[in-house]
Amino acid sequence: MVMDWQDRFSPYGRGAGGAETRAFLRLVGQPGLISFAGGIPDSELFPSALIAEAHRKILDDPARAKTALQYSVSEGYAPLREWIASHMRERGVACGIDNILITNGSQQGLYLTGRLLLGAGDGVLTERLTYLGLLHAFAGTEPQYAPLSDLRRAERVHAKLAYAMPDFANPTGQSLSLQDREALLAGAEAHDVVLLEDAAYTELRYRGAPLPSLLALDVSRRDIEESRVIYCGTFSKTIIPGLRAGWVVAAKPVIGQMGLLKQASDFHTSPLTQMVLTEVASRLPQSHIAMLCETYGARLGAMLAALAAHMPPGVSWTKPEGGMFIWVTLPESIDAAALLAEAIGAGVAFVPGAAFFPDNPKHNTLRLNFTACDLSAIQQGIARLGQLIAQRPNAV
Ligand SMILES: Cc1ncc(COP(=O)(O)O)c(C=O)c1O
After folding, report:
1. Atom of ligand 1 nearest to the CA of 198
2. Is 164 within 8 Å of 195 (Cβ atoms)?
3. 90, burial (CB in 10 Å: exposed 0-12, middle 13-18, buried 19+)
4. Cα(394) to centroid of ligand 1, in Å?
5. d(Cα 25, Cα 30) in Å, to the nearest integer?
6. pTM
7. pLDDT at 28 (0 to 100)
8. Which atom of ligand 1 is nearest to the CA of 241?
9. CA-CA distance, 27 to 247, in Å (whole number)?
10. Which DSSP string do the residues of 167-204 spell out, in sequence order?
11. 254 near 215, Cβ under 8 Å?
12. Cα diameter, the chain
């Protein structure tokens, strides 16, 4: 007899989301398809030679190889935590290595924050459109979502956590102004809410001047041990995502307890990975990030120009200064999921927007990634998409 697994899953297990992400990721590698679907960096731009050399160097040295291949501590490899602490200090966050936890990608930092702070049905504040991976990370606890703007309300807000992506948010590409950042911090203070800062795209700025992180603003006024911000960073967007390494920066009690949760889940991030990233992060020239920003900035410019040239009236889109995404709003009568089915037939893919709304989805929205395709694919793909939208009976 076939087991009825659904009945046996715990409420937490049953709540796990993410099936859409799996489906989108499958589209990424389909031959002949111009995919604007994934949220992925261009693998042609990975510092592969440096990564290969770092592996060899570590594994060819018997003493270092032993450390690299052995069990290790949950908080992470001390030299990598040192490198991250210094990187954060350069960005205005006075912190030491005891404020840093190494995670398996920043996704694990988001997940562990949810596990650490949220009980069933607790309140979470997010932008109306938010990172799908955050919704999946928190899915098991079935949070009560409410808008981030509630932090500006005078009356009491019943939320434990507010989640923000201050730079080039996924999926909209939009950023918070300095004034918005200050208002978030003040609101979190007034309502006694923890702020979870997701800095995944911060380093990928193509235009405009960098702004301080929420954590940097908070720590400019008080010691990190008094801060209510939990910051998640990552190597995925600037070096490579495949080694799965990110970090959390927060007050020591948060790092200590989160380290125990991580220990219960996976003991630690691979020491080999952490040693390789220490080598690569400290030897990677600043020109690498400048090259990424130049290449991706040109792709963003090409996609914005192609949208302006090929989209029919009634279609609008965001104009980000960095990151990986543009958010498109179609005329209300067009359902982006139905459009996707046609678009795949025409050799183009994107992500329909509905999944990014915690509730009341808008079906006439979609997300485009501009970092994974070259300039000619961007022009071709957007031209095809524009044609399909213009041909729809209800296009304006
Ligand atoms: C906004 C945001 N946060 C976090 C992540 C997680 O990335 P990683 O776990 O590779 O650091 C992503 C991945 O795409 C993202 O878009």
Report:
1. 3
2. yes
3. exposed
4. 35
5. 10
6. 0.95
7. 57
8. 10
9. 29
10. SS-TTT-----HHHHHHHHHHHHHTT-EEEEE-TTTT-
11. no
12. 68
Average pLDDT per run of 10 along the chain, which is 396 residues long?
Answer: 88 74 64 89 95 98 98 97 98 98 98 96 94 92 92 88 98 97 96 97 97 98 98 97 97 98 97 97 90 98 98 97 98 94 94 89 96 96 96 68
Which tokens belong to 229? 């911000």
Tokens of 320: 């980000």
How far is 274 from 280, CA to CA, in rounded Å? 10
Give, as one character, the DSSP assignment of residue 243: T
The finding on whether 240 has its CB within 6 A of some atom of ligand 1 is: no
Does residue 328 have its Cβ closer than 6 Å to ligand 1?
no
Residue 370 near residue 293 (C-beta atoms within 8 A)? no
* C-beta neighbour count of 224 within 10 angstroms: 21
Q: At what angle do helices 286-310 and 375-391 cross, to 10 degrees?
A: 30
The closest-lying atom of ligand 1 relative to the alpha carbon of residue 105 is: 9
d(CA 396, CA 315): 9
Neighbour-count burial of 285, counting CB atoms closer than 10 A to its CB (0-12 exposed, 13-18 middle, 19+ buried): exposed
**What would the pLDDT profile of 111-159 be if each residue is shown by its tens digit?**
999 999 999 989 999 999 999 999 999 998 889 999 999 998 888 888 9
CA of 239 to the centre of ligand 1 (A): 13
pLDDT of res. 295: 98
Q: Using the mean position of ligand 1's atoms as its centre, give its distance from the Cα of residue 309 in Å.
A: 31
- The mean pLDDT of the chain is 94
